[in-house]
Each structure stands twice: as C-alpha cells, then as structure tokens.
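#dry-run=false #mode=assembly
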Amino acid sequence: MNQEHHAAPHREIAELAALDRERSRFAQISAILGWDQETYMPEAAVTERAEQLALVESLAHERAVNPKIGMLLAACEGRGDLAPQERAYLRVLRREYDRETKLPAEFVTEFAKAVSVSQAAWAKARQADDFPAFEPYLSHMVDLNRRKAAYLAPGAKAYDALLDLFEPGSTESSIAGVFAVLRKDLVALLAKIRARAQVDDAFLHARVPESAQRAMSELMMDLLGYDRRRGRLDATAHPFTTTLGPDDVRITTRYIEDYFPSSVFSTIHETGHALYELGIAPGREYRGTRLAEAASMAVHESQSRMLENMIGRSEAFWKPSWDRIAALAAPALDGVDLPRFVRAVNRVQPSLIRVEADEVTYALHVILRFEIESELISGRMRAKDMPAAWNEKMRDLLGVEVPDNRSGCLQDIHWSMGAFGYFPSYALGNLYAAQFLDAMRRDIPDLDARIASGSLAELRSWLGEKVHKPGATFLPAELVQDVTGSPLDASHFTRYLGEKYGRIYGF
Ligand code: ZN
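#status=ok
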C-alpha cells in the first residue's frame, strides 16, 4: 500500500475536484459554442460548429469517465472521518460517474442512433398528423428506456430509475401521491374559474416596439438584482439560460411585437434561473465541480417560476416601476391601471398546448404526461393506445376536446428524444416554489411591502442563503425539508392559487 492511501480524505477529495473541474471546463467551452450558435453565429457556420461541439463534448465525456475518478471514489467512500460536505460531494460525484459509466458504449450508440431517426419520424408524423407513422418509434423508445433503466438501476422499478435522472431521489409512488392531491385541487379550482366572467386582456396585444420591450427587460433584470458584470441578455427564438462559468451566466428572451408580456416574463423567468446559477457557492474548494451545480431541474424551475409567476405577476412587484413601464409601452397601456394589468397577465384559459398554458392549467398538462409515461414504461399501456388515453385525460383534466394528434399527443418532442421521467420536474418546480415562498413569508412577514417599495434584496438574500448557495449538497427532498421544515406538500401551491385566483376571478 502506498503513501497515497493513507493521506487524509480531503486530499483525495481535492484530487477528485481537480479532475471534476477539468470536465466542467470542457462543458463550459461547449456552452460558449452553443450560446454563440443560438445568438450571433452566421448560419453558414452550422456544420463546422457541430464538429467543434462534438469534439469538445467527447473531451468532456472522456474526463467524466476517467477511471481514476472511480478509484478515488472507491478509496474515499465508506470512510468514517469525512465532513458532511465531503460526503455530499462523494454522493453527487458517484451518481454522475455511475450514470456516465454504467451504460455500455454499444448501448449509448444504439440509443443515440435511435433517437435521431425517432425524432425525424416524430417531426414528420406531427406535420402530417399521422400518429400510426410514429407509433413504432415510440414503442422502440419505451423499450430502449426500459433497457437503460435496467443498466442504471438493476432490479429497481424502471420508471423510478428514469425519474432519478432528472429529480434525484424521487420515485413514481412519491410523485403519484403528491400529484393525486394536486390533480383533484386543480380540477376543482379550474371549475370555479370557468364559472366566472373571463378577464379581458385584449390591450396586451397592442404593438410595443422591440427597443421598448428590451428596456423593460433590462428594468426587470436590474430590479431583480441580476449583476450585469456576470451575465447578459440577448434575443433568441426560444428563451434560455446558459452557464459559461461561475461568473458568466447569460440569458436570452424573445420579442413578439404584438404581445410584450412574452419577452418581459421570459426575462423574469430566465433571471430566476440565472440568479440561482450565480448564487451557487458551496465553498472555494468545490468551485467548478458537480457540487456547484443545481440540486435538480425542478429546484431550478422553482427559482424561475417563483420569480415569473408568484412574484412577477403580483401587483406589489409592478408597483414601483409601473409609471416607467406604462411610459415605455405607450400608448399600449394608456388608460390601463395596475390592477387591470395584473388581472390580464394572470388570465386562465384551458388550452391544448402545454407550453402556452397558464399557471393553473400548466400542472394539469404535466400530470397527464406523468400518468401516461409511467404507464408506458411499466407496460400497463401500449403505444397504440396512447392517443385515446391522451384525449380522454384532456377532457377529464382540462375540459378540452382534442381535434387532432398534432395538437394532442404529438405536440412535445420529449418522448421522441427518449426523454421519459422529465415531465414531472416541470410541475414539481411550482410546488417547491410555493413551499419555499411560504417559508420565506414566515421569515420576512412584510415581504410584499418590501417588494412594493422596490426592494427585492431581502427576497434575494433569503433565496441565496437557503436555496442557491448549497448547490447540489442536498437531494431535492432534503432541501425542501431543510429550508421549509416539512416534506414536499402540494397544498402550499394549491392554497396560493386558490387565494390569488379567488381575488382575480372574484370567488
Ligand atoms: Zn425554466
């Protein structure tokens, strides 16, 4: 046995962090190339860029599966003299290392090839509204995902293994329990809203030039405390946030001239993601490692959705900048007062398309997909029976008739890409956000008054300290318990919605 095996565990952990950091630098280079591609790259560069990205990603992958990581992990795990943060780091790194190394190389290649043909088949089938043409590819994706699950977690429930990829530690039964409550409450709330007169939002469709919308977005970024020395805003077809390094987190938005709320709320949403990424700081020695990444996709969404919907669509939030917003939008908001604006941007309208859904109906779209994909993966539902199940659930949950599969079960790209277990994160984000916000209100009882006076510093430092700083130190369930004092509970979200929409729709 050589000297190294007797070294203090923190030395081996520092070695692991150094290897891990090298991987993340390649991932950051890849993010720079990807950001440039979406924003400023001339279109003729697309083929060369794909080659550049493929090379950098393969270098990142090589670093991630370095056998030295496996050896160091094995040497550290099970030691009794580890600090809690060291244990947390080993847990995160083990999870990621296993994910990268447990799938045989032939399977990864087979999966990637199948995805590219399946995605092309989906795009064609959606265009032609031809589900039967996509059905064999869907079956194949289900089958490949079952095999993937068996490699990742032999003996476990397949859908649980897939969920774990997106929301570590979650299971089908834990999510089903939470969603059952949510489903019942949301269907009841939607019925109440539908019984009331609809809110008028026609004035939101007046023309507001891109330059004015851009100024509004910048106003929102400043109000929310997004440090422009560590990020920037650009325009893309689909808004996103990307991390180019611990001090370089950029966002994008999309300008629609006859619907300015789209750019403004996208900016607020992405700013929520950016503040999270910029706030992750589990300690100097973990900078640039897996521990300095988000706890999960749903925790990430909790940060964007809290700012966009729970804070950003409230009267208190708009109050300090209302005059400036109205001036920038002029004449679109002439004669519109703040309460009317707030009602309009919170309009609830059940529709066919998930990505266009409002705050109340959104989670119902997600529950529908969770119920279907868990049945597909478990084999309780066959691919050919999916459209009928989809349409029936749309009727039960949203009261909407699906006219064709293009605007029904063929609308999302996820299953064609082989991504099963991803959808629940979208709804869990709302639930985490509402529960965090209730805890924040306990600690800062005058939160709304502070926001209404233009001060979001208290909100930001509360989120920064409790949610952002630890990064991936805790599993999402541990984080919720730690921050709020209780396990995940959908009633925080449904109570928030009931109170808010009761005010807006008058019940
Ligand atoms: Zn988001």
